[in-house]
Amino acid sequence: MDKIRELSNKKAAVIFTKSSCCMSHSIKSLFYELGASPAIHELDKDASGMEMEWALRALGCNPCVPAVFIGGRFIGSAKDVISYHVEGSLKQMLMDAKAIWL
Questions:
Q1: Of 79, 83, 38, 74, which Cα lies nearest the Cα of 55?
Q2: Residue 100, CB half-sphere, CA atoms under 13 Å: how many?
Q3: Domain of life of the organism in this record (predicted)?
Q4: Are the C-beta atoms of residues 31 and 13 closer than 8 Å to each other?
Q5: What is the pLDDT of residues 17-73, one digit of tens each?
């Protein structure tokens, strides 16, 4: 859990993914389209990946990827991010965290 906390606070937007996950790819693409450049941590390519996966599950992220943090705060998985985007609040979250500027 400490590693998740540490990594999620290093950048305004952080996404934990797996390289084979199509939803992770979609969420990364959405962030890039909005102008954000999130830190990407691929759990299947990290030596501590399995440990981080269990920590994300403990946070309530099921499935464990993609797990999205904005401004150091866990905002959810793909369905949550898409919901925030549809309701129009995702962009504001990214702006508030200084992940994007207008």
A1: 74
A2: 18
A3: Eukaryota
A4: yes
A5: 999 999 999 999 999 999 999 999 999 999 999 999 999 999 888 888 999 999 999
